[in-house]
Amino acid sequence: MAQIFCVANQKGGVGKTTTTVNLAAGLAKVGQRVLMIDLDPQGNATTGSGVDKRQLALTVYDVLLESASIKEVRVQSEKLIAGKCSYDILGANRELAGAEVEMVDLERREKRLKLALAEVDDEYDFVLIDCPPSLSMLTLNGLCCAHGVIVPMQCEYFALEGLTDLVNTVKQVHANLNKDLAIIGLLRVMFDPRITLQQQVSEQLKNYYGDKVFNTVIPRNVRLAEAPSYGLPGVVFDPSSKGAQAFVAFAQEMVARIGKV
Ligand code: ATP
Ligand code: MG
What we know:
Layout: E1 3-7, H1 16-29, E2 34-38, H2 44-47, H3 60-64, H4 70-73, H5 78-82, E3 88-90, H6 99-102, H7 112-118, E4 126-130, H8 137-145, E5 148-153, H9 157-176, E6 182-191, H10 196-209, E7 213-219, H11 222-226, H12 234-237, H13 242-257
Parallel strand pairs: 1-4, 1-5, 2-3, 2-4, 5-6, 6-7
This protein binds adenosine-5'-triphosphate and magnesium ion (MG).
């Protein structure tokens, strides 16, 4: 059975997409079978995996509206295959922005993705879902099918404030829609140890959330920021960079945490 994780944080630009594509590549690198789902109309995880979002005939939009199955929509990326860190991709583009409105009248609209995933569950070890920066119907579809939420966050003052809203949303979804859901962990990203405030917030996080904070810390690393313009996760683009190494370590930590060898 696949372990399904949402990478979510309603704050914009905190590193969700970078985390999703690099964790997907890192897990593939350590031998896991991975499906990456782009649930953001921006389509950054699609582009960042080497797939041209404008050329896609079918996307996750078609899965949500039940006009196609995951088997019909998923694609692979030649760049990832060449880099030997390949995972399957359920792509997204701007069309997905309309899904929210079009789904309003549909029954069980928050469970669409969950139902579709059941069909491919045994083909993957991990399913990773890149969520948009909002707590919308799209994010809700992700949360309804997930076993856990990975929350990337920068160690800044306002990051802690936003976390409360996310924790409350996860509690509500847990109580009403998906009893499997839990925050599996907080991932410190874009970390710069030279900045005192970041060290302080990092300590506060550990004191307050304990082992919900992942051991791995992702450093601020320019190679991770450059990689998407080459249509590659940093893990494939420059495997020797500090950022890539941190994401492979994070993949190993995830595998160890959920008890897979
Ligand atoms: P959105 O909310 O718009 O979906 P996001 O949370 O998915 O954004 P990203 O797109 O992953 O955030 O990252 C925002 C920016 O920060 C990008 O330009 C990305 O390349 C850069 N970035 C992310 N992580 C790192 C890092 N560890 N080091 C350096 N730059 C990073
Ligand atoms: Mg994003």
